[in-house]
Amino acid sequence: MDPAWRQRGRGRGQPQGQASRPQRERAAAPAAESPKTPSAASSQSKFEEIRKSNQAAAQRLVQSQYSSSSDDDVDDIVDDGGKVEGKDGKRGKILASTLTTYTDQTGGDVTDLDREQTQYLSDVWSCAGCFCLFHIPCIQKWAKDSVFLLSSVTDEDFGKKDHPWPCPKCRYEYSPSQTPSRYVCYCGKVQDPSLDPWLLPHSCGLVCDRALNPACGHHCLLLCHPGPCPPCPKMVSVSCMCSKAMPVPRRCSNKPWSCQKTCGKTLPCKQHACNSSCHSGVCEPCPRVSVQRCVCGQEEAERQCASPVWHCQQPCGRPLSCGNHTCERMCHSGLCGACPRSGNRACPCGKSKSSLPCTEDVPTCGDTCDKVMECGLHTCSMRCHRGACETCRQEVEKQCRCGKYTRLMPCHKEYLCESKCPNTRGCSRHQCRRKCCSGNCPPCDQSCGRSLGCRNHKCPSVCHQGSCYPCPETVDVKCVCESTSLTVPCGRERSTKPPRCKQLSPPSCHHPSRETHRCHPGPCPPCRQACLLALKRCQHPCPQPCHDQVMVKTSDRVSVSGPWEQSSEPAFVRKALPCPPCLVPIPTACLGEHEVSPVPCHRREPFSCKRVCGRTLTCGNHSCTKDCHRVTATTNKLQAGPECVVCEEGCVNPRPPGCPHPCLLACHPGSCPPCQQMTRQRCHCKISLTFRSAEDETKADLGSCKNQCPKQLSCGHHCKDLCHPGHCGDKCSHRVKLKCPCKRIKKVCFYLSVALCL
Predict the structure, then answer these.
(1) Which ranges are annotated Basic and acidic residues under compositional bias (predicted)?
(2) What pTM does this model have?
């Protein structure tokens, strides 16, 4: 049978038994002898030119790609009427072209390349799960080793069960009978497909014709191809899933559709209808609750309407047909059946039978039991008895398991000597050391424990030879949003790219106006918008760029123990940073209310301007020398408060004239009190000594000796006042006789009025 690409030249709908092209040309030869029109002749000449050019191009292509192929190969490909070379000849020439470099070195000897030619270059097998290609010898060894590993770990009777083996890449499981044993094309119709440069490798060139998946009754229309078959492209007329709507034309691969009407089918409870919209498959269980009886009818309970059949924990208790016993079966449906003690019943040893009422027990027959005991060699010698037979106690000569010693001992006991097996177990690493070994040493029971190639798990099998098998575990590689996953063999998650996800990427910041995009690997680009979140303390919007996802260097660094170790680079993590402090300027008065300055919002509490307080202290003479501070208990901006300093200076008021003593009080408001200190001083006339207070208001009286002032006036008379301070003055009160200038009149008058008299 010719490949489909050769059959296409026969025309559409031509049966395979129709004549070939050379036969049609011979049959049309007489008709070709008829005279041709000029247009037909020109078309024929153009066709011949194009055909010759295509042949030449095909020859050049084959010669450049396959240097060892002969011109007969090109003729075989181009000219269908020529002699077709055999399958083995064409395959041999193509394989020989692949191995030309090796055969040139060995003088054409290909003895050592038989395995490479027949197995590794041509015989392959395609997995039905992942459609990956494997060499048939490799996959056969993989299947055998996988079954052996699983049997050695799980089977107590090693090798007695048929365990499945997985695909090395996708872990799709196959039964042992599905282990590939022959080389077939992709579609499985042709065994040992021939190599053709115009076809896909390992393809037979025929129509695939495999049943499509999911099964729809149609078959694949492509040529024999690797990988899964495409969805069915045919159009079919189908109704909705609940069969209420009219049929509509749809693709066969996408037939199910919903009319969105209520299903309305009766649920298994036979009481309610399905309220779901048009759906496929079986309706969901009834969600309602009802009171239902158990199977035996003894109890009632409120249960889900979807599960009406249930069993209570009470025995049936209904009387049996014998009338003497009741049914001891747990809650069940149907008839209880006949009494288990009715009819012919055998004695315990089974040699005699008797028909007795169900109320009586069958007696023992008195004969020998003769049942085969557990040893399988001897029979029970006791009389007919109830219960199990005792262990066999006959003395027999037994040989130990290793065959070195024999001993006479009871039949039910096993004889094992004390010698230990010196052979090496199958792992070639440990000795058997089992007591009385039969020579068939069991597999090594020690755990392998070596790290597998995945670097995540350790070998779970027992100690074995050679390399450990690949890790049988699988890992889910998820996208960033973890809604889409891809299952890969353990260890490949490091090199496998995350699967493509159609879900929208979760928002990475709080801005609703940011453009939405699909889930993608790697971090989202940073947001360039301003944060604008209301700050907790002041409710001002944050003016900084968005800081919900910021790369921050971690401080966890491993200490270096020596100069031969390199320090690990710091790691970066993506985290949300808190909003920075608010920097909006707020006019704020200082503590002493000296000035109003703009202060950042996060520090807008009253501050100290560092000026001198300057408030007048309670003394009224000095001011507070502290730096600007808070003042309470006063509304006057100039008056000092309890927080101001206390004046510790002495009194600075000027002393009254003549008082040499300082004020003994601390600095105080108002005038100083009178000086109370007594001093010894001379009187005003400097004749007598007196004691007086320096600040006494009557110091003038106290400083007087009460004698007449001895001072003389300017007129020459003595001062007639008592001792007094200061100058005596010019008011003389002494009487004198005066005459007028002519000396005619003579008067007596005071000295002060002399001028008047004159």
Answers:
(1) 80-89
(2) 0.39
